[in-house]
Write a structure and sequence with these properties.
single chain, alpha+beta, Jelly Rolls, Glycosyltransferase, Maltose phosphorylase, domain 3, 3 domains, eleven-stranded mixed beta sheet, five-stranded antiparallel beta sheet, 14 helices
């Protein structure tokens, strides 16, 4: 604060990094804020560094002393003055009495800051101070309160109409000493009462203590995941105008727009976007509401294909991958969360394969080899560790595995969240996938020896998988949906057996009522694989399924974000009682990339969209789809409409790019240069039949 005003518009600075190695600093231009006499007030809170954070009673993860370093640089013509924090500064407790990320904040407007304490020097040791690496966390949206609810339990509840991450700003005509308590929750229970039982130990409540008169309360060092708030202490029904929900997220530019003729799918698209915004709060968190909010690597790997479509995430993930590499070890590999405060061993398939999957995906979307150059050593180290641990037939059959996390193909999903797919089959498939990525990366970067070595290793792993897990007649030893999907997606099935595996996959889906049973591992690949093997109609059925479990089932249950579990809310309105049930996740939102790349047909032939593939595909039940994407070369758009007996395809191609357009229902490809295009012709299909 400078002269009573907030400097900058960032929150939760300096951001969460591997504090054992480096801490970010921020720069602000305060020229217009300076006066003849100035008061500088810097408030610090425990946050990720020394707060109650990490679940299971973890606290003081990096240290027990909060500290601040600051310099003010003032230029007077040709003279420069630097004012530094040092022993001459004083400290005291201000109006923010306490603050914890999980538990909330207490603000007392009656208090005056009395800076009488002596400052104690703080040594950062070998840790480096580095400039801000990614876009900061800001208020990216503000929502007005929508409804005032009096619940059957007699609670006063306010609905903002949208599950979000952030905090509530309260403007109130207060009375001296009046205490207002705001508790946060994502859903109401099936009786219509306020519910926050899925928050576990997180209290997620802000307490505001009033002075006399009109005043505004706004937390600064905490955030919550919520749609509903329970308000206590007002003594009267509040006005909705007193409350505003401030949405916090890393401030990244949106890069994709999507809409279609189906309102439930449009809501699903909204849910995917809100789920991403709610969880990309400086790091890719797994949930914004309970006592967790950790950077689980598997969730990020599952969603990266969609994340890189929705937002400009390049700098965000470059910063996070820097922390990933700093936490990596040659003994345990990649930890399962980044930054790592759990002290657990890494090595689980897809979770640790984030070291290869995320840089490779970023390169494909943005066309910039820099991220591969920066992460190449990390990518190699992960594959080298798996090679050292492999079996004699080049399989990965060791260590803790998450399996197909939260899959629905076991009877007791709450007690056994790993799914029915053999976890070491999954691990071996991802070993092959990561090795292939490293081989391709080495070739792109000109490391011919490495490209050859890892290419040969990939061939050995592929052969080992086929000998161990595929019978001579083409049956997979494990024939779950996820097993079939991964084997096909990673091209690990011999060509002569692919049709049999395709058949088993489709048969499994049909036998489950045209519903998925996949978890975090299988779901990101499911619809892409189905489309690629000629079962696009099945993929469309899965998208349009409105019954449990399914994406549109969630929408019809009132979801405004993506759920953590397919059964977060059951058909009878009850909740999953496993103790791990977030209503704002993003892993299953990975369907977003398929919606852009297959329904709208926007893809690339060359990394970074220098060469573009437009191949929109129809499904029964949709008559219109429209999408636009910002590429490094400009705006790319494609839309289609199939009504009244004709098809209309139109869009635009950015400058300095070329595109091939595959016309739906025609065996015809048009080669296009930059500029607008439009094609109209008779249709063979009635898409309105559903």
């Amino acid at each position: 604060m400078l002269n009573g005003l907030k400097v900058g518009n960032e929150f939760l600075s300096p951001g969460w990094t591997n504090y054992k190695r480096h801490i970010q600093y921020q720069e602000y231009d305060i020229t217009g804020m300076l006066q003849d006499s100035n008061v500088i007030d810097i408030t610090v809170a425990p946050g990720w560094y020394s707060g109650d954070f990490g679940g299971n009673g973890r606290t003081k993860n990096y240290g027990d002393q909060t500290a601040v370093f600051a310099e003010i640089h003032i230029w007077y013509g040709d003279r420069k003055e630097i004012i530094r924090t040092d022993e001459s500064w004083k400290w005291g407790v201000g109006q923010t009495l306490n603050s914890e990320i999980y538990h909330g904040e207490t603000i007392d407007h009656r208090k005056q800051t009395l800076c009488e304490g002596e400052v104690v020097p703080f040594d950062i040791g070998e840790r480096k101070l580095i400039a801000q690496q990614s876009p900061p966390v800001r208020i990216i949206n503000e929502l007005e309160a929508r409804d005032l609810i009096h619940t059957p339990n007699g609670e006063t509840v306010i609905d903002f109409g949208q599950n979000l991450s952030g905090f509530v700003e309260l403007t109130i005509q207060g009375k001296e000493g009046m205490e207002v308590l705001i508790s946060h929750g994502e859903v109401l229970d099936r009786d219509g009462n306020f519910y926050n039982g899925n928050l576990r130990t997180a209290r997620a409540a802000d307490k505001f203590i009033c002075k006399e008169g009109l005043q505004r309360f706004r937390p600064r060092f905490t955030y919550h995941g919520f749609r509903y708030i329970k308000v206590e202490g007002l003594g009267t029904d509040p006005s909705l105008s007193w409350f505003k929900a401030c949405v916090l997220s890393t401030d990244m530019e949106g890069t994709v727009e999507f809409s279609c003729s189906h309102p439930l799918i449009n809501q699903l698209w909204s849910n995917i976007n809100w789920g991403m915004d709610g969880n990309f709060v400086d790091i890719p968190t797994d949930c914004p509401q309970r006592d967790e909010r950790l950077g689980w690597t598997g969730d990020a790997a599952a969603f990266i294909g969609t994340a890189a479509q929705l937002r400009d995430v390049y700098l965000f993930f470059r910063k996070w991958l820097k922390d990933l590499e700093s936490e990596q070890s040659d003994e345990y590999g990649i930890p399962h969360i980044i930054p790592n405060i759990l002290g657990e061993r890494g090595g689980a398939a897809m979770w640790s394969d984030s070291a290869t999957i995320i840089p490779w995906t970023l390169y494909q979307i943005y066309g910039d080899k820099e991220i591969l150059e920066l992460q190449y050593d990390s990518m190699k180290r992960w594959v080298d560790l798996m090679e050292r641990q492999e079996t004699p037939n080049h399989l990965r059959q060791t260590g803790y595995q998450f399996g197909d996390w939260l899959a629905m193909d076991t009877e007791q999903i709450a007690q056994w969240p790993y799914g029915a797919t053999d976890p070491y089959f999954i691990a071996s498939l991802f070993y092959a996938y990561s090795t292939q990525i490293v081989s391709k990366t080495a070739a792109l970067l000109g490391y011919k020896k490495d490209a050859r070595r890892y290419g040969e290793l990939y061939g050995k792993i592929r052969k080992g998988i086929q000998e161990e897990y595929i019978t001579r007649t083409g049956r997979l030893v494990c024939e779950t949906q996820t097993a079939c999907l991964l084997a096909l997606r990673f091209d690990l099935v011999p060509e002569e057996h692919r049709e049999k595996v395709k058949y088993r996959l489709i048969e499994n889906i049909i036998n489950h009522g045209k519903k998925l049973t996949t978890g975090f591992i299988g779901t990101p690949f499911a619809l892409h694989v189905l489309t690629s093997i000629g079962a696009h109609d099945i993929a469309g059925d899965l998208l349009l399924n409105e019954e449990y479990p399914g994406w549109l089932y969630e929408v019809k249950k009132g979801a405004t974000t993506i759920w953590e579990r397919w059964d977060s809310m059951k058909p009878d309105g009850s909740f999953n009682e496993s103790g791990m049930n977030s209503f704002n996740h993003y892993a299953f939102g990975s369907i977003g990339s398929w919606m852009i790349e297959q329904l709208a047909g926007i893809g690339f032939l060359e990394a970074g969209y220098k060469s573009i593939r437009l191949k929109p595909l129809f499904i029964n039940g949709l008559t219109e789809v429209s999408a636009r994407r910002e590429t490094p070369y400009g705006t790319l758009s494609c839309s289609w409409k199939c009504t009244g007996g004709e098809i209309l395809i139109q869009g635009s191609i950015p400058v300095n790019t070329t595109a091939e357009l595959h016309l739906p229902e025609k065996e015809e490809v048009r080669h296009l240069g930059s500029g607008s295009f439009s094609f109209r012709y008779p249709t063979k299909t009635d898409l309105e039949q559903r």
